[in-house]
Every structure is written in C-alpha cells, then in structure tokens.
Amino acid sequence: MSTRSDSLVRRRERLVASSTAQRARLVADCEPLGRAAATLDRIVGPIRRHPVIATLAVTGVALLGSRKVFDLASRAVTIYMLLRRR
Predict the structure, then answer these.
(1) Is 48:55 a contact under the CB 8 Å cutoff?
(2) How many Å apart are CA 78 and CA 67, to the nearest integer?
(3) Is the pTM of this model over 0.90?
(4) 25-60 burial code (b ≥16 CB/10 A, e <16)
(5) Torsion over CA of 83, 60, 42 and 46, rounded to 10 degrees?
(6) Can you tell me the distance from the alpha carbon of 81 to that of 74, in angstroms, rounded to the nearest whole number?
(7) Residue 2 DSSP one-character state
(8) DSSP symbols for 18-37
(9) pLDDT surpasses 80 at 86
(10) pLDDT single digits (tens) 19-52
(11) Residue 1 clears pLDDT 70, i.e. is over it
C-alpha cells in the first residue's frame, strides 16, 4: 500500500475510536435523562390509555379541591375493600 492509504487507514482508525468514546460518554451522560423519561412514561401511560378517567379526576380536583377529593377517594377505597371481602 502507499503511504497515503496507510495514513488514511490510521486516520480512520483514530476517528472510529474517537467516535466510539464520544458515543459512550453521550450514553453515560444521558442515563439520568433516560431514567427520568421512563418515570414520566410510567405516569403518562395510564393517562393516555384512559383519558376520560383522567379528565374526570382533574375536573373533580378543580371543582371540589384536592382535600375533598382525597377524603372521598379514601372512603371509596375503604368501602371497596369491605365489599371485596364478602
């Protein structure tokens, strides 16, 4: 091979090694962002699958207030658990 092709081969090897290192750093730097996105996806997933329920919940909180909704929800869960035992 000629000197020029040897030079090109070495340059290519350096560039490939550099891009591999950059890719690894990018993946490592974006890992916290990936975890946050996964958490957000777990929260948003059910809302996307059940938009009517989400709309009713938001409307209930807006109209009644969060404290009143929490009280009603805790009563509903208690009644559900009592009826489920039978």
Answers:
(1) no
(2) 17
(3) no
(4) eeeeeeeeeeeeeeeeeeeeeeeeeeeeeeeeeeee
(5) 70
(6) 11
(7) -
(8) HHHHHHHHHHHHHHHHHHHH
(9) no
(10) 999 999 999 998 988 888 888 888 888 888 888 9
(11) no
The position carrying tokens 């946050």 is 36
In 3D, which of 52, 33, 54 has the Cα closest to residue 43?
Answer: 54
Task: Determine phi and psi for 65, rounding to 5 degrees.
Answer: 95, 150
d(CA 39, CA 35): 6
Determine the residue type at 75. R
**Structure token digits, residue 61:** 């909180």
Average pLDDT, the chain: 89
